[in-house]
Amino acid sequence: MFPPEVDAVHVSVAFSWDMPRAEELAREWAPVAPVSVGGPAMGEPGGDFTPGLYLKHGYVITSRGCPNRCWFCTVPSREGDLRELPISDGWNLLDDNILACSDAHIKAVFAMLRRQPHPAEFTGGIEAARLREWHVSELCSLRLKQLFLAYDEEADFEHLHRAAGLLRDAGLIRNESHIARCYVLIGYPGDTEEAAEERCHQVAKLGIMPMAMLYRAPGIADRPSLSWRRLQRQWANPVILGATMKATLT
Predict the structure, then answer these.
(1) DSSP H or E run through 83
(2) E strands along 107-186, which residues?
(3) Strand pairing partners for 93?
């Protein structure tokens, strides 16, 4: 099981609540080789991107950091100011905020995506407030599998509504197509299940498939309540949501 060429083991942890599992992995691998534990959960900046290191083949990061200072996000404190990286090949873009980059960098990223053997995915998300017509034109030049927007706070809906109009006019939002999706933050302090479900319905009415993201405070190991977890599953399962979207739009 353990090949002799293993001389070091890295345990990369994305979320702070996974630290107990990371520590367990470190103990299990300690007899094999020296183990180090790091990653975003440890507050470590990402540094330069190396394809295939900690992320599977096809995932790509071309910039780090974000100029926004959202209260729920640790990216600015961890990564600092936005910085553009050398562009590696890949088709699933995970940048913190790709549309905050320079126009030249964004165009170079789209050129890279156009030459990939797989359809492009924007699972890192694109900021609706920054979406412009020329960005949409670039998106239309791709074989596009999916892109994610975000609805984190009530003030975001105005931008999301405008972005949905741009995407719909370009044919990227249409019945029975779920290219456009949207992360919907739910369960944060002061939120209610009724308000969270209404935000998910708002997104569905735009023709965008919602994906509920259940807020968990950094460093808090306790899981959210069962009712919140059930609501999150209901609004994050594509099979269930397919029927919900069809009913909403007819």
Answers:
(1) strand 83-84
(2) 120-122, 144-151, 180-186
(3) 60
Q: How far apart, in whole angstroms, are the C-alpha atoms of residue 169 and residue 137?
A: 11
Comparing CA positions, the residue from 233, 109, 242, 228 lying closest to residue 181 is 242
3-state helix, strand, coil in the chain (%, to 5): 40, 15, 45
In 3D, which of 181, 153, 151, 184 has the Cα closest to residue 167?
Answer: 181
**Residue-wise pLDDT tens digits, 169-222:** 999 998 777 899 999 999 999 999 999 999 999 999 999 999 999 998 876 667
Query: Which CA distances in Å does 74 have to 94, 101, 165?
Result: 15, 19, 30
Domains and CATH numbers, the chain: 1-44 (no CATH), 45-249 (3.80.30)
Cβ atoms within 10 Å, residue 217 = 12
Residue 227: burial class (beta carbons within 10 Å; 0-12, 13-18, 19+): exposed
Q: What angle do CA 139, 167, 73 make, to 5 degrees?
A: 80
* Residue in 50, 56, 119 with CA at minimum distance from that of residue 86: 50
> What pLDDT, on the 0 to 100 scale, is given for residue 243?
76
